[in-house]
Amino acid sequence: MCDTCGCNVTLANRELAEGKQATQVLGNLLQVNDDQALHNRVHFNGHGVLSVNLMSSPGAGKTALLEATAELLGNELRIGVIEGDLETENDAERIRACGVPVVQICTGTACHLDAHMVHDALHQIDLDGLDVLFVENVGNLVCPASFDLGQHRNVALLSTPEGDDKPAKYPVMFRSADLVLLTKRDLAPYMPEFDAAKAVSYVRQLGNVAPILELSAKSGEGLEGWASWLKRGVADLRENLAVPTAEGA
Amino acid sequence: MHELAICQALIDQVETVASNNRATRVSGVTLDVGPLSGVVPELLLNAFPVAAAGSVAEGAILTIEAAPVRVWCKSCETESDAKINRLVCASCGDWRTELRSGDELMLRSVVLEDATSTPHAGQPEEKQRV
Ligand SMILES: Nc1nc2c(ncn2[C@@H]2O[C@H](COP(=O)(O)OP(=O)(O)O)[C@@H](O)[C@H]2O)c(=O)[nH]1
Ligand SMILES: [Mg+2]
Ligand SMILES: [Zn+2]
Ligand SMILES: [Zn+2]
């Protein structure tokens, strides 16, 4: 019944309706999260740490990429990880084994990380000693994209076995990416149906100009491009902030 | 799904609006939701009664206005309709577009019952932050 819900009354005359008063609000529903994200970013900037949010479906290779990154860049960049994927400590253990400081967020049943969870984790990690802080988000191509964590960069991973049309199916996630990584490219010979050019074109159709790199954490191919993207990110951040830290960069 | 978390944030905002206006009950809530917000309107509608239970908005009607997907083309300087996974310019086909509408996730208005003061309905820019 429209008389009950007020949906037939336009905004302009709603306050005239009997016994009802409409207040126009115009507030962002995620304001509380976004305020916290802003606060997180102040933490990152204050320490000159580049924060990178890794998002993908489960199993696309986020943890494997972090392991390979630690091995490749361990002497050049000081990295830390906030691990949000899965309830277990497995991923955190894998990363810790690489000599990288890691804080596990136990998300329980949560399908995404939010800015408050990341903030809690931030107080368990020493940002002063870091150049890059990675946040491995919950494996999910839908929810994580809606929550700003305060990161400087969003990275979306798309693995070869998943198929090249994921960007068209999950536009919110792939539109938000500042870098898209086509992962597990060592599997390309076994999966010729994955057309990298098509994946690129699906991302472009989202109006996204982000660089798109092909790599394999397993074989190591393409990791140099990723490494230089990270190093450039750290350099750009510090130039913007003019923070005189960077001995590791 | 994150729609319940979003509904809880919504209820917090609605509670604030209601208490600012000394209203005892909220009978309606209107949102603007774009398809590129990452939020599914149907799931919001399902989650809303759960989040609203026991709050000032218990039993309120949630109305969701779907915002259109519109892009601005920098090369031919026109605005056009687009699809969520094809955000290209409808007139020249260029993909280097800017989203003008379609990712909104906004609380637009709240219908207050028994407000004991005059609500600020005439001030559209009023922002409510929790
Ligand atoms: N062939 C191949 N397998 C990979 C690669 N990266 C990850 N994997 C495998 O894919 C599975 C999931 O990887 P993981 O890093 O845990 O994914 P996550 O859930 O995104 O963190 C594991 O069995 C990895 O060994 C890769 O580059 N090539
Ligand atoms: Mg993982
Ligand atoms: Zn969710
Ligand atoms: Zn155009």
What does this 3D model show about the protein?
The complex is a heterodimer of chains A (249) and B (130). Chain A is of the alpha/beta class. Chain A has one domain: P-loop containing nucleotide triphosphate hydrolases (Rossmann fold, 3-Layer(aba) Sandwich). Helix content of chain A is 36%, strand content 17%. Chain A has helices at 2-5, 11-14, 31-47, 62-73, 90-96, 115-122, 166-169, 171-175, 196-204, 223-241; strands at 20-28, 50-55, 79-83, 102-104, 132-136, 153-159, 179-183, 212-214. In chain A, strand 3 (79-83), helix 5 and strand 4 form a beta-alpha-beta unit. Chain B is α+β, with helices and mostly antiparallel strands and 130 residues long. Chain B has 2 domains: 1-66 and 107-118, 2-Layer Sandwich (hypothetical protein PF0899 fold), CATH 3.30.2320.50; 68-101, no CATH class. Chain B has 2 helices and 6 strands. In chain B, a hairpin with a 5-residue loop joins strand 3 and strand 4 (79-81). Chains A and B meet through strand 1, helix 3, helix 7 and helix 8 of A and helix 1, strand 1, strand 5 and strand 6 of B. The structure holds guanosine-5'-diphosphate, magnesium ion and zinc ion (ZN) (2 copies). One zinc ion (ZN) binds next to loops of chain B. The site of one zinc ion (ZN) has 8 residues of chain B, from loops.
